[in-house]
Amino acid sequence: MRKLQVQGVHHITLVGADRQTSIDFWEGVLGMPFVFEQPNLDAPDESHLYFDPGDGRLITVFTDESRTPDRSPNPTAIGNLHHIAFAVSRATYTQAARRLEERGIAHSGEKDRGFMDSIYFRDPLGQLIELACYKFEPPDGTTHAEVLHEAHRLRVMAGDANIADIHLADALESLSEQTTDSLSPDRTPKDPYSRD
After folding, report:
1. What global pTM score does this model have?
2. How far is CA 36 from CA 14, 49, 64, 104, 131, in A?
3. Which residue stretches does the UniProt record annotate as biased composition, category Polar residues (predicted)?
4. Which residues make Cβ contacts (< 8 Å) with residue 16, sequence separation at least 6?
5. For the residues of 125-189, what is the DSSP string, one character each?
């Protein structure tokens, strides 16, 4: 028996209402360029809209002009999608609440998640959307997931409940030492201010 190794999210497809609601939300609110459209190849009466969330991957939406938006929260029972999170810059994150409020969109307010900051709101079809901003940048040659894996290891060793800034800072230091060579034979912390 062998695994089927995945290499990232290819795309996420949602069932939308009418075409314009999808364009107005995904491009008009979240700034995702509307990159192409074709019929839903499994249901030719529907359209299939493709949006770029900023990393060249795709968010796609099946639309049908006979469907109207329903803002009721989507079900969150076992097997249902709870929310979709999109990465935003720190600058965008600091503006998110204000820009949602300008549109009259209710939101959660800013949430500190230990390793990231988040804000939540619902799309016009009731799907919960999260805008997330990491509190760190990974060292060159490493990924956010690698930093979080190391921060988790450090958190567990410390007996702490969740990842916090101290775990991230120590993980960044550890990974930097592992991925970047130095001519120094001893890379332990030093105090250059204590010399006479």
Report:
1. 0.92
2. 15, 6, 16, 29, 24
3. 176-185
4. 22, 49, 61, 62, 63, 64, 67, 125
5. TS-EEEEEEES--PPTT--HHHHHHHHHHHHHHHT-SS--HHHHHHHHHHHHHHHS--S-S--S-
Domains of the chain with bracketed CATH = 11-134 (3.10.180.10), 144-179 (no CATH)
Residue type, 67: R
| 82-96 pLDDT per residue, tens | 999 999 999 999 999
- CA dist 46 and 62 (Å) reads 6
Please, what's the largest Cα pairwise distance for the chain? 81
Residue 139, pLDDT score: 94
Rounded CA gap, 194 and 179, in Å? 29
CA 16, chain centre distance (Å): 21
Q: Which two tokens stand for residue 155?
A: 């958190």
Measured between alpha carbons, how far is 93 from 97 in angstroms, rounded to an integer? 8
Is residue 2 exposed (0-12), middle (13-18) or buried (19+ Cβ within 10 Å)?
exposed
Q: Are 115 and 82 in contact (CB under 8 A)?
A: no
Token pair of 57, please? 């991957």
